[in-house]
């Protein structure tokens, strides 16, 4: 439990009001993919920081979503903890699969449903209200606190590094609590120690100046067939990426990390049930799936389209075909270097004319489980949840954690309030309300343990 029992009591007594604050924030659409409601949401976030006694600045770069910065000073510790979160959300489609309107959050059966209530507005509110509890009880937070709330995470954080570069001193801290934190369905908290990097791109193959009748497929080239043949060159049936040099910088996990991975539960164990699959990719065993999620690069087809896809039939030879791909990267892989290798590989195989539009790229980041911050979170998890946490060497997902860990040389980790079955990026996104309170206590205890080191 949080060392300061009065803070814990305040958190418990104000849960209803805190949930209403999530509803307030999640009721404002802020879909960065459509640039919808971003500025309006930034205004709400700014006011929420000020309501807990923080000072704020709204940073603005041309063409970028506002970055909302906040801080609270403390006389109790010279250390500074930075909380990073984002206020933008994924698109809410397909609407027909939602059981309640995505931007009208609703409580059902002990859960709050709505777009962004987990990723990432519920997490954002949990950090703000944790600091509010300390301020209301003790007059100040336990240490200096900074908030970095951006509005473009769901589109790859294309301007975050520039914001930090232009305001380097502003974001300097001793430790970073990252945006998100998982709690297993059995109540096991997960200490996330890193994220993979990513290259996101779109391929466009053009073979004709316009769509043709499919009878001419006997003589005219097909953009779709050419795209599928290209894609078959990217990865083999055993999930290995075939681009030369792709694994040159990939390092195996250290012996102690492998031992930790073997001992720890993993979200891999729940994936088959959650997503209705009979087996892992390429029929790999569980042990390999656990390792792949943490330490192996990926090449994923995120979307592919061409020609006619409506009801009934239309005999057409499409003039062009498109594919969106994401490549997840592990520590030491350089996105710029891999981008060059991909382009060279396409050219060498006769696809140099294919249009490749790179949308976002970012390297991976990882914190050692031996760091003071990680050990503080592990200890706090045991104290709050009364069980050992799962230690996730790295998330299978991606985020711009590197912007902070590389520049400032600090530890960063993911801990928070969200159940593993919170339907991130999907219809009926949700959080469990009992986890919301426990997650807040875990955050507070982690900070207190870290400050005591």
Give a structural overview.
With 453 residues, this protein is α/β, with parallel strands linked by helices. It folds into two domains: 5-195 and 365-452, Aminopeptidase; 197-253 and 285-362, Alpha-Beta Plaits, CATH 3.30.70. It has helices at 5-13, 15-26, 38-51, 121-138, 160-166, 223-232, 255-263, 268-275, 286-295, 335-348, 372-385, 402-408, 433-452, and strands spanning 55-59, 67-72, 80-86, 106-108, 111-113, 144-150, 175-177, 182-183, 190-192, 194-195, 197-206, 212-213, 300-306, 316-317, 320-329, 355-362, 365-366, 390-392, 411-413, 418-419, 430-432. The strands form seven sheets. A six-stranded mixed β-sheet has the order 1-2-6-3-7-19, with helices on one face. Helix 11 packs across helix 13 (433-452). The longest helix is centred in the last third of the chain and has 20 residues, at 433-452. 43% of the residues are buried.
Characteristic terms for this protein:
453 residues; Aminopeptidase; 2 domains; 6-stranded mixed β-sheet; 4-stranded antiparallel β-sheet; globular
Quick take:
The chain is α/β, with parallel strands linked by helices and 453 residues long. Helix content is 34%, strand content 21%.
- Full CATH superfamily name of the largest domain: Zn peptidases
Helical amount among residues, as a percent range?
Answer: 25-40%
* Order of the strands making up the biggest sheet: 1-2-6-3-7-19
* Total strands: 21
Question: Count of DSSP helices?
Answer: 13
Structural class by secondary-structure content: alpha/beta
How would you characterize the largest beta sheet?
Answer: 6 strands, mixed
Question: pLDDT average, as an integer?
Answer: 96
Low-pLDDT segments: none
Proportion of beta-strand residues: 15-25%
Morphology: globular
What count of structural domains? Answer: 2
Tell me the distance between the termini.
Answer: 18 Å
Rg over alpha carbons: 23 Å
The CATH topology of the largest domain, please? Aminopeptidase
CATH architecture heading of the largest domain: 3-Layer(aba) Sandwich
């Amino acid at each position: 439990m949080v060392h300061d029992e009065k803070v814990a009591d305040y958190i418990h007594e104000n849960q209803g009001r805190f949930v209403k604050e999530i509803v307030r924030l999640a009721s404002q659409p802020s879909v960065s993919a459509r640039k919808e409601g971003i500025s309006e949401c930034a205004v709400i976030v700014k006011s929420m920081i000020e309501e807990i006694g923080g000072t704020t600045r709204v940073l603005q770069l041309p063409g970028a979503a506002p970055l909302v910065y906040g801080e609270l000073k403390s006389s109790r510790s010279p250390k500074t903890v930075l909380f990073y979160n984002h206020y933008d959300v994924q698109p809410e489609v397909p609407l027909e699969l939602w059981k309640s309107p995505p931007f009208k959050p609703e409580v059902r059966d002990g859960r709050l449903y709505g777009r962004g209530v987990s990723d990432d507005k519920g997490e954002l509110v949990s950090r703000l209200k944790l600091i509010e509890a300390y301020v209301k009880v003790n007059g100040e937070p336990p240490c200096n606190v900074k908030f970095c709330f951006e509005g473009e995470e769901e589109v790859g954080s294309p301007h975050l590094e520039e914001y930090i570069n232009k305001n380097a001193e502003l974001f300097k801290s001793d430790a970073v609590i990252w945006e998100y934190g998982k709690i297993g369905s059995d109540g096991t908290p997960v200490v996330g120690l890193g994220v993979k990097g990513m290259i996101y791109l779109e391929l466009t193959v053009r073979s004709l100046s316009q769509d043709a009748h499919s009878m001419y497929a006997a003589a005219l080239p097909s953009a779709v067939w050419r795209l599928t043949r290209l894609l078959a060159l990217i990865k083999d049936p055993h999930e290995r990426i075939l681009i030369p040099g792709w694994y040159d910088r990939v390092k195996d996990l250290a012996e102690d990390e492998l031992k930790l991975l073997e001992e720890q539960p993993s979200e891999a164990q729940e994936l088959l049930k959650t997503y209705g699959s009979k087996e892992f990719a390429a029929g790999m065993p569980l042990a390999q799936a656990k390792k792949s999620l943490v330490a192996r690069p990926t090449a994923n087809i995120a979307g592919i389209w061409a020609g006619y896809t409506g009801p009934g039939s239309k005999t057409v030879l499409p003039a062009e075909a498109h594919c969106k791909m994401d490549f997840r990267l592990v520590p030491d892989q350089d996105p710029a270097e891999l981008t060059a290798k991909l382009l060279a590989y396409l050219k060498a195989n006769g696809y140099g004319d294919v249009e490749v539009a790179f949308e976002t790229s970012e390297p991976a980041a990882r914190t050692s489980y031996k760091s003071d911050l990680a050990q503080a979170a592990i200890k706090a998890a045991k104290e709050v949840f009364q069980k050992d946490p799962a230690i996730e060497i790295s998330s299978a997902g991606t985020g711009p954690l590197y912007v902070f860990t590389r520049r400032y040389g600090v530890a960063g980790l993911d801990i928070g309030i969200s159940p593993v079955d919170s339907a991130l990026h999907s219809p009926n996104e949700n959080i469990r309300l009992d986890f919301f309170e426990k997650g807040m206590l875990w955050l507070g205890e982690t900070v207190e343990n870290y400050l005591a080191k």
